[in-house]
């Protein structure tokens, strides 16, 4: 199997704090059908248990240069794959 082309390997960190998604990310998720009108996430192929875990994870985004919730990273166009506690990121500039 070929390795995915990526620029960054970003470590996934955990937090006990409740994290909130920014409004622009919520709107983007609603438009793409990954969140319903009530704000409940519906990611295809992700179990409720895994989704709960993902809500407590964050990454230090190399593109945005800030800590972001893993769900925001997961739906980013730069997201390649999640492998053993790391995210493979293309590193392309975002609009």
Quick recap:
With 95 residues, the chain is an alpha+beta fold. It has three helices and five strands. The chain has a five-stranded antiparallel beta sheet.
Descriptive report:
- This protein is α+β, with helices and mostly antiparallel strands and 95 residues long.
- The chain has one domain (8-89).
- It is built from three helices and five strands.
- Strand 2 and strand 3 (66-69) form a beta hairpin.
- The longest helix has 9 residues, at 23-31.
- The chain is globular, with a radius of gyration of 13 Å.
- 14% of the residues are buried.
- The model has no long low-confidence stretch (mean pLDDT 88).
Keywords:
95 residues, 5-stranded antiparallel beta sheet, alpha+beta
Kindly estimate the percentage of residues that lie in beta strands according to DSSP: 25-35%
Mean pLDDT: 88
Class by SSE composition: alpha+beta
Helix and strand run:
EHHEEHEE
Largest sheet, strands/sense/barrel: 5 strands, antiparallel
**C-alpha Rg (nearest Å):** 13 Å
Strand order of the largest sheet: 3-2-1-5-4
Overall tally of structural domains: 1
Please mark out the parts with pLDDT under 50 across 5 or more consecutive residues, or reply none.
none
Distance between the termini: 31 Å
Anisotropy-based shape? globular
Helix segment count? 3
User: Portion of residues in helices?
Assistant: 10-25%
Oligomer: single chain
Q: Strand tally, please?
A: 5
Please give the structural blueprint.
Elements: E1 8-14, H1 23-31, H2 48-54, E2 57-61, E3 66-69, H3 70-74, E4 79-83, E5 86-89
Antiparallel strand pairs: 1-2, 1-5, 2-3, 4-5
